[in-house]
Amino acid sequence: MSKIIWHITMSVDGFIAGPDDSMDWAFRASEPSALADEIREGTGAILGGRRWYDAAASKYDGVAGIYGGGWSGPVFVLTHRPEDIPEDPTVTFLSEGLRDAVGTARDAAAGKNVEIFGANTAQQCLDAGPLDEIAVHLAPVLLGDGVRLYGAPAMARQIDLERTDASESGQVTDLRFRVRK
Ligand SMILES: NC(=O)c1ccc[n+]([C@@H]2O[C@H](COP(=O)([O-])OP(=O)(O)OC[C@H]3O[C@@H](n4cnc5c(N)ncnc54)[C@H](OP(=O)(O)O)[C@@H]3O)[C@@H](O)[C@H]2O)c1
Question: Could you identify the atom of ligand 1 that is nearest to the CA of residue 48?
Fold first, then answer.
């Protein structure tokens, strides 16, 4: 059965993007990582939020920048604004609700895993239940502000995790968790 995996790089103070959606710190910290390779190779589709898409499209080469160009496949983006979507043949915008969107991405992944991009989107997946795993690359940096991993803007409920892997990639600590349901 394919899994729904949230795969992120996070600062030591718990941000997945810096001020102004900056990801430069994460690209700078990036090291060759067996965990990242395993997740990339197992991913059959990506489901992201509109904020991820807009930031990636304006600053980081959009879909072509995913894994530095080292992955290709179907990419879906959740948005409440279907009347205001850019012309971009590399993504499919969805406004059908979280559960249906996860189902659409899972079908497109054809037996492989679905990767989630965006904290808000991942939090909804945790709330609604389909998120199976969280893979975190802990980067040696304090950002001070930005997009929190979890809990913002609304309070989020407690989620218990089981750590299934811990390893090092240079200065980066790679962690993998199973979501206890
Ligand atoms: N560190 C990492 O590895 C990593 C990875 C990925 C992303 N990021 C960063 O994370 C940030 C984005 O995360 P985020 O939490 O701010 O936002 P997000 O999850 O990317 O996007 C949230 C937006 O998606 C749309 N959306 C979400 N759920 C929806 C639903 N059920 N139905 C319809 N539309 C829905 C809404 O936009 P509208 O209402 O405007 O349509 C919502 O405001 C960016 O800065 C990105 O660079 C970091």
Answer: 20
Three-state SS for 8-32 is: EEEECCCEEECHHHCCHHHHHHCCC
Q: What is the pLDDT of residues 101-113, one digit of tens each?
A: 999 999 999 999 9
Q: What separation in Å is there between the alpha carbon of 77 and the centre of ligand 1?
A: 9
Q: How far is the CA of 119 from the centre of ligand 1 (A)?
A: 6
Domains in the chain, ordered, with CATH? 6-179 (3.40.430.10)
pLDDT attached to residue 1: 79
**Region label for 107, one of left (φ > 0), alpha (ψ between -120 and 50) or beta (otherwise):** alpha
DSSP run (H or E) holding 166:
strand 161-169
